[in-house]
């Protein structure tokens, strides 16, 4: 049983050390600001800034209601902390019902100024290690990790492929991009062998 993974320190491409650890309630301010910064940068996103929760309390409410703050193994949310600041977030949120709760949905975001340093890869590797080792009380656990990614988000698609995810399907024209064109979304997945 590993309900949440232990913290780990990783050395980034620029030589700095970054702490990857489970998210805690005191991270809500940092996570709120992180999501805003990523959405403002307009790369790889499927939301507009005015669609985000307006303040930290509503943000925290959305996160808790979504189940991301759970510590019972139904979710795992990590933050990357660099020089005291939350610069990345990655999570696996398992589907709710027993027939499908071996499937977890992955979400990830890294602060624009901290991208390309290895934080995204390190967070996913840590999440996958948790998925491989976590066991529910009945012996179950995560057997498949799924995600959706804009087909024009080449960097993210490349990262997922490098970690073993494969494209299972294409949701054609799912996203209306800022220029009004319609962009496909790729459904990618990775099986977790036992
Ligand atoms: C996608 C994202 C999470 C990746 O995180 P990151 O910290 O920037 O990525 P990393 O530095 O760990 O790079 C990981 C891999 O990405 C790929 N990559 C990085 N920069 C790249 C580039 N300029 N072009 C192509 N691939 C690139 C490489 O495969 C790299 O592998 P490597 O470790 O062997 O070099 C991050 O860029 C991000 O948050 N983007 C905006 C929001 C977003 O797209 N979220 C995902 C939605 S599905």
TrEMBL record:
<dbReference type="Pfam" id="PF00583">
    <property type="entry name" value="Acetyltransf_1"/>
</dbReference>
<dbReference type="InterPro" id="IPR050832">
    <property type="entry name" value="Bact_Acetyltransf"/>
</dbReference>
<feature type="domain" description="N-acetyltransferase">
    <location>
        <begin position="18"/>
        <end position="193"/>
    </location>
</feature>
<dbReference type="GO" id="GO:0016746">
    <property type="term" value="F:acyltransferase activity"/>
</dbReference>
<protein>
    <submittedName>
        <fullName>GNAT family N-acetyltransferase</fullName>
        <ecNumber>2.3.1.-</ecNumber>
    </submittedName>
</protein>
<dbReference type="InterPro" id="IPR016181">
    <property type="entry name" value="Acyl_CoA_acyltransferase"/>
</dbReference>
<keyword id="KW-0012">Acyltransferase</keyword>
<keyword id="KW-0808">Transferase</keyword>
<dbReference type="InterPro" id="IPR000182">
    <property type="entry name" value="GNAT_dom"/>
</dbReference>
């Amino acid at each position: 049983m590993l309900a949440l993974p232990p913290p780990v320190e990783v050395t980034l491409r620029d030589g700095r050390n970054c702490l990857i650890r489970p998210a805690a309630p005191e991270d809500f301010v940092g996570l709120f600001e992180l999501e805003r910064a990523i959405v403002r940068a307009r790369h790889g996103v499927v939301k507009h800034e005015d669609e985000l929760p307006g303040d930290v309390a509503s943000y925290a409410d959305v996160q808790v209601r979504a189940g991301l703050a759970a510590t019972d193994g139904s979710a795992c949310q990590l933050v990357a902390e660099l020089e005291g600041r939350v610069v990345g977030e990655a999570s696996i949120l398992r589907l709710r019902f027993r027939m499908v709760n071996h499937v977890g949905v992955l979400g990830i975001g890294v602060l624009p100024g901290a991208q390309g340093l290895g934080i995204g890869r390190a967070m996913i590797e840590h999440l996958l290690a948790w998925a491989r080792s976590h066991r529910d009380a009945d012996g179950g656990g995560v057997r498949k990790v799924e995600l959706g990614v804009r087909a024009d988000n080449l960097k993210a698609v490349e990262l997922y492929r490098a970690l073993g995810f494969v494209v299972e399907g294409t949701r054609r024209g799912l996203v209306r991009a800022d220029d009004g064109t319609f962009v496909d979304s790729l459904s990618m997945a990775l099986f977790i062998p036992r």
